[in-house]
Design brief:
Chain lengths: 329, 338
């Protein structure tokens, strides 16, 4: 997962261990949280509830997948949720206008890919910092969504657009939605692409040390642009996931989606400085937040205290990152 | 090795502390089915849990639940428009075995699917404050008739103008929201105008926000200061509007009305910032909702239809022909910090 290599038979220190396997920390936190909530409530360790927790983390989990790619290149996407909301509105409005579900879905995804291409081009061609580009886009896309929908929510009746949330089957007694299946497939595909293909190695290299990457013959700009385009596809699919969860495209929805996705990625052990992180870690990060919310709710903990807990966990995760880096140096 | 176990221990400690540090209060026994046992388990889902209006609604529902021996748990979205958060709240309440869910929907259509699932599972669902579209998506709605509240404001402003033709600014809420539309059209009906009337000298949407209202009205005043009436959709926007009017020295020539009934709003009326506000009663919505839940748990009887919890004009300048209460009464019945 990381570019770190160990010499000879040297035993890794704890810091190196976390650097080599960034998903271990969040996996541990997830495990502890599940054990604590299973022991302290009667309702947490219930197959329906576990399925629910996963369903509740799907939209942020999918957004976080695209965010992982961008953060790996030392970028950040503040506009992913706004692009997703715009895509849900495009899909919903097209269906209301008589377009078939499949075309609405594809055109919605095309829109997010175009947004990804614009972002990627501004970052690679004009060398604007991703933070600034996506901050600007956040405002533009939020306003565009409100203008496009005249400020109103659009209910979605199309069965294809709702399909990811409504279709479900049982797997070993656990209710699994098609949305969960799709998310799992996406995580697997991206895990494979990042760890087993040259493209994945390029993404890590570009994030770690762009200049060395360039000198070793990697087309840095092309790699970064490809990352924003793939992230655009993922954001489009997140819009489909969102309509599966709440079949109502609302221009005011997901105002915190961008921050939630960054939280999941950072909790998953990725470094905001790029070059380090994994899709497995991000999956754990998204699940940790959902598990914490669900468990604390069942314990009757006030939602504001839940925010405190999530924030504290985030700071803790960054501390572990720092600790690991210091050990390495 | 020592360091490794240290990290694991720290993680475990953080998690345990976050769970044990807060009130570890089990709200439900868990595992019980909805509707059974005669004990009401009431879940409340508000739009946010920081707005004073919803804080009052929650406090009133909690008190009513305690007084009637019902179990109570309150959840909320993170911001106005957080449909996903509200769906999550409904699912979690169902998971915990709630037999009644009281909800102030963030959007009138956003959570219909989840409500439908809850009702199919035998949960009584009552909309508080904001109606769903269609209103038959829930068992019953306990709310202010916002059209009527707007109409009362319009009628009062018209009465104060005493036959003078209105020259009106309208400070609206969030474009397209149901409550905004109902209050807006109600006001126009009350004052006797339509959206196309030339008496309307300017309109600005301000999303319910004080500073946006101030900016919006400042901009409108660049166009004309020849006005004598202002509609504001809620009290924070009323305060923003007042600031803009005061800066131009216009407050004395203008009759301004607002809607909400927050304690700060009533004080604004008392201090003469605006002529009147129309009070709504979140406490009544919450109490009636909890009572319906208790009744449902006992007898299985569900309420139905739209139940208007009423609204009242609050002013210290009563006008014959328009029913109103003074600000003293208003401060006794307002919501928020008294």
């Amino acid at each position: 997962m990381s570019t770190l290599t160990l010499k000879g038979n040297e035993r890794p220190t704890i810091g190196e261990f976390f650097l080599r396997a960034p998903a271990v920390g969040p996996a541990l936190a997830l495990l502890v949280a599940i054990v604590v909530f299973s022991l302290s409530t009667d309702t947490f360790l219930d197959l329906d509830n576990l399925s629910l927790v996963v369903q509740q983390s799907l939209v942020v989990g999918t957004l976080a997948l695209g965010q992982t790619l961008i953060i790996l290149t030392a970028g950040i996407d503040l506009a992913n949720a706004a692009a997703m909301v715009l895509a849900t509105l495009i899909m919903a409005k097209l269906v209301v206008g008589g377009v078939s579900g499949i075309w609405a879905l594809l055109l919605g995804i095309v829109a997010t890919v175009v947004i990804g291409m614009v972002t990627g081009s501004l970052v690679t061609r004009i060398k604007l910092p991703p933070f600034i580009v996506t901050l600007g886009l956040l405002t533009v896309l939020t306003a565009a969504a409100k203008l496009f929908a005249s400020g109103q929510a659009v209910p979605v009746a199309d069965s294809l657009l709702k399909w990811l949330g409504t279709r479900r089957y049982l797997f070993g007694g656990i209710p699994i939605t098609y949305g969960m299946t799709l998310a799992l497939l996406m995580y697997l595909a991206l895990w494979y692409a990042l760890t087993r293909t040259p493209w994945g190695k390029h993404v890590y290299a570009v994030g770690n040390a762009p200049e060395s990457a360039r000198l070793s013959g990697i087309k840095v700009n092309r790699t970064i642009l490809s990352v924003y385009i793939v992230a655009g596809v993922i954001v489009g699919i997140a819009a489909w996931q969102a309509l599966g969860r709440v079949p109502n495209a609302d221009p005011n929805a997901f105002q915190l989606g961008n921050l939630d996705s960054i939280t999941a990625v950072v909790l998953g052990g990725a470094s905001l400085f790029g070059g380090r992180g994994s899709v497995l870690g991000t999956m754990m990060g998204a699940l940790v937040v959902a598990v914490l919310r669900s468990g604390l709710t069942q314990l009757g903990v006030d939602a504001l205290y839940q925010d405190v807990a999530t924030g504290a966990l985030l700071i803790g995760a960054v501390c572990v990152d720092r600790f690991a880096r210091r050990q390495q140096s | 090795m020592r360091q490794r176990s240290l990290v694991a221990l720290t993680l475990a400690a953080v998690l345990t502390a976050t769970t044990a540090g807060c009130t570890v209060e089990r709200h439900w026994g868990g595992g019980s089915n909805a509707g059974g046992g005669g004990k009401a388990k009431v879940g409340l889902v508000t739009k946010t849990d920081t707005n004073p209006y919803f804080v009052e609604l929650r406090a009133a529902a909690k008190a009513a639940a305690e007084a009637n021996g019902a179990e109570f748990n309150a959840l909320a979205g993170q911001f106005d428009g957080d449909n996903d958060g509200q769906v999550r709240a409904i699912e979690n309440l169902m998971q915990q075995g709630a037999n009644t869910i009281l909800i102030t929907p963030s959007s009138s259509t956003g959570v219909l699917d989840a409500i439908d699932r809850a009702r199919k599972a035998g949960v009584l669902v009552i909309a508080l404050d904001t109606a769903t579209e269609p209103d038959t998506a829930v068992d019953a709605t306990f709310a202010t008739d916002n059209f009527e509240a707007g109409r009362q404001q319009g009628a009062y402003v018209k009465a104060v103008l005493a036959g003078k033709p209105p020259k009106l600014f309208m400070v609206d809420g969030t474009a397209g929201s149901t409550v905004d539309t109902q209050r807006h059209t109600g006001f126009l009906k009350g004052i006797g105008l339509t959206d196309a009337s030339p008496e309307i000298k300017g309109k600005t949407p301000a999303n319910g926000d004080q500073s946006l209202a101030q900016q919006g009205v400042e901009n409108l005043l660049q166009r004309t200061t020849d006005i004598n009436a202002v509609y504001t959709m809620n009290e924070p926007m009323g305060r923003g509007t007042y600031a803009a009017l005061q800066a131009r020295g216009l407050v004395n020539q203008i009759v301004m009305g607002s809607i909400d009934g927050g304690c700060e709003g009533v004080k604004n009326v008392r201090d003469g910032q605006y002529a009147a506000t129309v009070m709504q009663f979140p406490k009544k919505m919450a109490e009636q909702g909890v009572l319906a839940a208790v009744e449902y748990a006992k007898t299985g009887k569900k309420p139905s239809g739209f139940v208007n919890t009423g609204s009242a004009v609050i002013t210290d300048k009563p006008i014959p022909g328009v029913e109103s209460q003074d600000t003293k009464w208003g401060l006794e019945n307002c919501w928020g910090t008294k």
